[in-house]
Design a protein that fits this description.
By secondary structure, this protein is an alpha/beta fold. It has helices at about 15-25, 40-45, 75-90, 170-180, 205-210, 225-230, 250-255, 275-300, 390-410, and strands at about 1-10, 30, 95, 100-105, 110-115, 115-125, 135, 145-150, 165, 185-190, 200, 205, 255-260, 260-265, 270, 320-325, 330-335, 340, 360, 365, 370. The chain has nine helices and 21 strands. The strands form six sheets. Strands 1, 2, 3, 4, 5, 6 and 21 form a seven-stranded mixed β-sheet that branches. The chain has a five-stranded parallel β-sheet with strand order 8-17-9-10-13, covered by helices on one side. It has a three-stranded antiparallel β-sheet with strand order 14-15-16, with no helix packed on it.
């Protein structure tokens, strides 16, 4: 039996940020990682992926971006190398290839059963991120075609010859549809609820505006409906060197066929809901409200000249049914997001009825159990690379106080 004061589950950007903050406070801790540092950046991404956030926004505690391209977008492999270097720089005590199989409560703390032995800890930080398991709809295993979740897609060359159906039009879906279309394939994109923003507005990156307006730092408890905010899709964006948009109009310009939300498959025919125009109108209404907010912040009136926002066109009727064989669709990419998996967390009181971790701004309902890096944990950018550090600093101080209080009681 091994022991530490704090066990951190996960050694991605959130776990490493917490490690740095605990080290500054002199708190003994260990990080448990089922693979290597930044494991999901190795296994859940396609080859050409770049970060969506500009480099200047991707700082970690005591490690701001210091390169010569602050407005650029890092390749995922470069970011992974940066994480590895960061772990070395801060001396993070990472136990690689060590999966946490279960976490249970004990009278004086927690018991972690791992693939490399059993540990006791006085506190635990869950820093496992947002992407535990693919979220797939019913009937997502379609016969006669290659079915891949977006986390399994690597390049267009890894797909069989023929057309491709991409299901989901958030950031991953539009980027994958764009890349496959540019490879010469016929692509159909099933579009559900989505959020659209331009990469740039009035010469500034979209995140510059969101940062300056304080949108990224908006506290979760100040939002009108945090649960609804949690269900918002990831905005359509790409981090390209030419800073071009990745949205439905740009895909239409490439020849991508748009359809409504995926409805199902029967007898070799895919069906879609008749809701494409409604989804597009909803996304555009939100887009223009956001742009008006930017202009208001900049003191620019509604009648001032502004850059053109390309519209989605409806010259052709969106398909309601497609024959996979007739359209020669040989692959389906399910860009339908992820869900969490807390099957390893054997503390019923720590979980909500929907199976998610119950917490208040990162402090779980079970004393000594904390979370970090979750979407809207404390603020809008809590799951961003550049947003996790501020949360880590706050929660590390809470952990220090928790350990001190327990030590005082024991004395």
């Amino acid at each position: 039996m091994y022991a530490t004061d704090v066990a951190i589950v996960g050694a991605g950007q959130a776990g490493l940020a917490m490690s740095r903050c605990l080290s500054v406070l002199g708190v003994d801790h260990v990080l448990f990682e089922r693979g290597a540092v930044g494991a999901r950046w190795r296994t859940h991404v396609w080859e050409s992926l770049r970060l969506l956030t500009p480099n200047w926004l991707n700082g970690l505690p005591d490690s701001p971006y210091q390169g010569d391209d602050p407005d650029g977008f890092m390749r995922h492999g470069d970011f992974l190398a940066r994480l590895e270097a960061y772990a070395d720089m801060i001396g993070a005590p990472v136990m690689s290839d060590t999966e946490v199989l279960s976490l249970a409560r004990e009278p004086e703390g927690f018991c972690l059963t791992t693939s490399r032995g059993t540990w006791r800890s006085r506190a635990v930080v869950v820093a496992t991120g947002q992407c535990d398991l693919p979220r797939l709809p019913d009937h997502s295993s379609v016969k006669g075609v290659l079915n891949l979740h977006s986390s399994q897609y690597r390049t267009p060359h890894g797909l069989p010859q023929g057309g491709v159906l991409v299901v989901g039009a958030s950031a991953s879906g539009v980027q994958i549809a764009d890349e496959i279309s540019r490879s010469g394939r016929q692509v159909t994109l099933a579009v559900g609820r989505h959020m659209r923003v331009p990469r740039h507005w009035r010469g500034r990156d979209i995140f510059w505006w969101m940062d300056r307006l304080g949108i990224l730092a908006e506290r979760t408890h100040s939002l009108a409906d945090p649960e609804a905010a949690l269900r918002e899709p990831v905005v359509q964006l790409a981090g390209r060197p030419d800073r071009s948009n990745a949205d439905l109009p740009s895909l239409q310009a490439l020849g991508v066929r748009l359809a409504g939300r995926f409805a199902g498959v029967e007898a070799g025919k895919v069906s879609f809901h008749d809701d494409l125009a409604e989804s597009v109108a909803c996304a555009e209404a939100k887009l223009y409200r956001l742009l008006a907010r930017f202009d208001d912040f900049a003191g620019i009136g509604p009648n001032a000249p502004r850059q053109t926002i390309a519209p989605v066109t409806f010259e052709a009727q969106a398909p309601r049914r497609l024959s996979l064989r007739g359209e020669n669709i040989r692959s389906i990419i399910w860009a339908t997001g992820y869900r969490r998996d807390f099957g390893w967390l054997k503390i019923a009181a720590a979980l909500r009825p929907d199976g998610d971790l119950a917490h208040q701004e990162g402090a779980a309902t079970v004393p000594g159990l904390f979370a970090l890096g979750f979407r809207l944990l404390r603020k809008r950018d809590s799951h961003f690379i550049g947003g996790v550090g501020a949360d880590a600093a706050v929660i590390a101080r809470q952990i220090r106080a928790f350990l001190d209080e327990r030590a005082w009681r024991a004395a």
